[in-house]
């Protein structure tokens, strides 16, 4: 197994897991449709919603294999045959983990995932495996997210108070996944909801796959001031920004756990609504999968691998060197070699 081009390569199987670089001859498993995970590969496998989102964003002309969750598929295009089963990852609509079995051993690649059920999308369903490759975006202990119901109340209160002050509430969230969580969270507000064009298009894919939302409309300059506006952070500028004045802004991101988030985002408020797992949930996933070996990627990968080693697991960070996080004593006792990137 090699970690390369932001993805994992299993050369014996002829398989890539989320390659950032466009691949030609080999199959690529695409875990979900966030921009940093999709490329127009020549041969890709993903769930049906992931392909829908991809086609909105990319010109794809390659071969596509639509995978259904929980249905095992056999492949035999590399040196070794393997069986791949997609499992819901609970991150955004269509997001999936890959459970790969070959020659008597198994591997679970999580992609981005969220164990706590969200307001939209599917519920995360991991499975036991010998090797676990997991994303660890929020892999430090202080990332402890409040229950989603609490964040929902905070979002509703923010909207009610802003409207009572005669201002437009502007909720800033990534257009795929987070924005749809917010629309559902606003159920019961009984106030018009208006979506930035990008959020509107993405939400239509959600409805196509049977997800229900309170009524919403597409962006309209003339009436936006009378609505709750949901907009991606990069879209809140220029004419749109002028049209909603006077307004109050709120950012929805897991990074809102950090006290300086509101200042970094330059918003009036910030709430920790995330489509990733928090630290405790990351640990819980390890318990559920019960692997012999763990590799961590993304975010605080080295920190989380170090935490796992302290708990007695065989864990290594793939995406960054983790020697730095080892206590000096361990290195000087000559165990440094075990911490090398594999
Ligand atoms: Zn993602």
In short:
By secondary structure, the protein is α/β, with parallel strands linked by helices. The protein has helices at 48-57, 148-164, 178-185, 197-208, 238-243, 261-265, 279-289, 301-310, 328-335; strands at residues 2-4, 7-10, 15-17, 27-29, 43-46, 63-66, 72-75, 82-88, 96-102, 105-109, 131-136, 168-172, 193-195, 217-218, 228-231, 247-252, 269-271, 293-299, 315-317. It folds into two domains: 2-142 and 276-339, Metallo-beta-lactamase, Chain A (4-Layer Sandwich); 148-271, Rossmann fold (3-Layer(aba) Sandwich).
Tell me about this structure.
This protein has 9 helices and 19 strands. The chain is α/β, with parallel strands linked by helices and 342 residues long. The protein has 2 domains: 2-142 and 276-339, 4-Layer Sandwich (Metallo-beta-lactamase, Chain A); 148-271, Rossmann fold (3-Layer(aba) Sandwich), CATH 3.40.50. It has a 7-stranded mixed sheet, with helices on one face. The radius of gyration is 21 Å and the shape is globular. The model is unreliable at 322-342 (pLDDT under 50). Zinc ion binds at residues 32, 34, 91, 112.
């Amino acid at each position: 197994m090699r970690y390369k081009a932001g993805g994992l390569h299993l050369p014996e199987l002829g398989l890539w897991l989320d390659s950032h670089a466009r691949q030609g001859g080999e199959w690529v498993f695409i875990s979900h449709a966030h921009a940093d995970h999709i490329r127009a590969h020549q041969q890709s496998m993903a769930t049906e919603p992931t392909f829908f989102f991809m086609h909105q964003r990319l010109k794809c002309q390659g071969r596509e294999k639509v995978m259904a969750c929980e249905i095992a598929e056999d492949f035999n295009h590399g040196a070794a045959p393997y069986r791949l089963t997609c499992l819901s990852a609970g991150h955004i609509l269509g997001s999936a983990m890959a459970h790969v079995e070959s020659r008597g051993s198994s591997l679970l690649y999580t992609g981005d995932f969220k164990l706590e059920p969200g307001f939209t999308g599917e519920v995360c369903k991991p499975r036991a495996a010998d090797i676990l490759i997991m994303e660890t975006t929020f892999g430090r202990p202080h990332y402890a997210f409040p229950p989603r119901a609490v964040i929902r109340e905070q979002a509703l209160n923010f909207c009610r108070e802003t409207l009572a002050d005669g201002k437009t509430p502007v909720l800033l969230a990534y257009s795929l996944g987070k924005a749809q969580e917010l629309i559902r969270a606003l159920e019961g507000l009984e106030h018009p909801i208006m979506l930035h064009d990008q959020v509107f298009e993405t939400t239509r894919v959600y409805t196509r796959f049977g997800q229900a939302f309170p009524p919403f409309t597409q962006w309209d300059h003339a009436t936006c001031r009378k609505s709750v506006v949901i907009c991606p952070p990069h879209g809140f500028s220029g004419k749109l920004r002028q049209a909603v004045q006077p307004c109050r802004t709120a950012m929805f991101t897991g990074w809102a756990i950090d006290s300086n988030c509101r200042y970094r985002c330059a918003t009036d408020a910030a709430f920790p609504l995330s489509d990733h797992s928090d630290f405790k949930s990351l640990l819980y996933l390890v318990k559920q999968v019960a692997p012999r070996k763990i590799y961590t990627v993304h975010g605080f990968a080295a920190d989380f691998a170090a935490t796992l080693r302290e708990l007695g697991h065989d864990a290594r960070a793939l995406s960054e060197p983790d020697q730095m996080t080892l206590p000096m004593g361990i290195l000087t006792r000559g165990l440094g070699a075990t911490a090398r990137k594999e």
